Amino acid sequence: MKIALCSSALLALAMSCAHAAELSPVEQNIVAAIKARSPQALQLLEQSVNINSGTMNHDGVRAVGKLYRQELDQLGFATRWIDMPPAMRRAGHLVGTREGKQGKRLLLLGHLDTVFEKDSPVQLWQRNGDRVRGQGVNDMKGGDVVILEALRALKSAGALDNTTITVMFTGDEESAGEPIATSRADMVAAAKRSDIALAFEGTMRDQDGKDTGTIGRRSSSSWELEVKGKQGHSSTIFTDKAGYGAVYEAARILDGFRQQVIEPDLTFSAGLILGGTDASVDEAGTKGQAAGKTNVIARTALVHGDLRYLTYEQRDRAHAKMRAIVAQNLPGTSASISFRDAYPPMSPTPGNLAVLKVYSQASSDAGLGAIPALPPGQRGAGDIQFVASMVDSLDGLGVTGNGAHSPDEDLEIASIERATIRSALLIHRLTR
């Protein structure tokens, strides 16, 4: 159900919530339950972080899934593990559902995998006062714990009764299995049965240090440039007969991109370049070989790059400009470019903003401050983007930390409680 029908209702809900000056008795019980369990929430996070679950460590991903499945079972969800076809080389996904008849139907998204594979030297868990370092501690096992603890508090207050909630923990968010149509088929199906999607990637702070909500995320896509030149003696380069060679033509194209394909929230990066008499890239597109001599004009050049955009209209403009630049070849050269979409964009919409307003009001009512929207250009790709075109969506509901994907990844321990309170109140207000 697309949100053209739901947005007006959500906007009305956001406005009605704006008049709430304090928490209801049920909401006070929810907050109290969360605060009482803060030590246990940290223990659950430690338990899950201490299981390596790099995307390609399938046993580890399944082990984290088993841990979370036990939690969902205790909360009364009907759970199942979805295996992926063996050829996809991905562990699968955990899904929990409950059915009811009141309020909005919610899809809650987290992921089990991290970027730290089994041989990673990064320490699993290390507490330093009020902060914790570890593999995936904020991206996004901290957010996963927020989901579970928010649902637990709602259940303790009797606020889960008669609600429709689907929880999906994917096993390959950091490197989505291909084909995408298969690896995200169950997520898309769940979105079609939902009204709103909430994702629990880490909470990012704005330039004023305020926690934010994510109403838009840029796509993740790629491009490949292939350039051809005339091989010949280097002493003849730049002549009409010999031309400019493939490397100079590749340089002209890339600089043309830099100067002419600039607009807000659009980025493009050349991540791999090879040139010479011969050049080739491996099947994965991450390694290659090149051969040439200083006295030979380069015959070939290959460039692989990344393109991120906020809307499909922005993508189409970028593609058109890039193709035009590629077509303006230097003498004696030719070039072609191809594009490949991966994660679709999560475009900011009035419906997304309406959900943020409910979230912000809940945070304010709990004494945790208002939540502004994060500028969409500051966020990369995430799972919610596969369903954002179908339902109103909000991301960034997880914990607050630093250094995601790096050896210094950490989180602020107090942010677990803050994020859980906000999320539980948001879920309650959307489903009551």
TrEMBL record:
<dbReference type="GO" id="GO:0004180">
    <property type="term" value="F:carboxypeptidase activity"/>
</dbReference>
<dbReference type="InterPro" id="IPR050072">
    <property type="entry name" value="Peptidase_M20A"/>
</dbReference>
<dbReference type="InterPro" id="IPR002933">
    <property type="entry name" value="Peptidase_M20"/>
</dbReference>
<keyword id="KW-0121">Carboxypeptidase</keyword>
<dbReference type="GO" id="GO:0046872">
    <property type="term" value="F:metal ion binding"/>
</dbReference>
<keyword id="KW-0378">Hydrolase</keyword>
<feature type="signal peptide">
    <location>
        <begin position="1"/>
        <end position="20"/>
    </location>
</feature>
<dbReference type="InterPro" id="IPR011650">
    <property type="entry name" value="Peptidase_M20_dimer"/>
</dbReference>
<dbReference type="Pfam" id="PF01546">
    <property type="entry name" value="Peptidase_M20"/>
</dbReference>
<keyword id="KW-0732">Signal</keyword>
<keyword id="KW-0479">Metal-binding</keyword>
<keyword id="KW-0645">Protease</keyword>
<dbReference type="Pfam" id="PF07687">
    <property type="entry name" value="M20_dimer"/>
</dbReference>
<dbReference type="InterPro" id="IPR036264">
    <property type="entry name" value="Bact_exopeptidase_dim_dom"/>
</dbReference>
<protein>
    <submittedName>
        <fullName>Carboxypeptidase G2</fullName>
        <ecNumber>3.4.17.11</ecNumber>
    </submittedName>
</protein>
<feature type="domain" description="Peptidase M20 dimerisation">
    <location>
        <begin position="215"/>
        <end position="331"/>
    </location>
</feature>
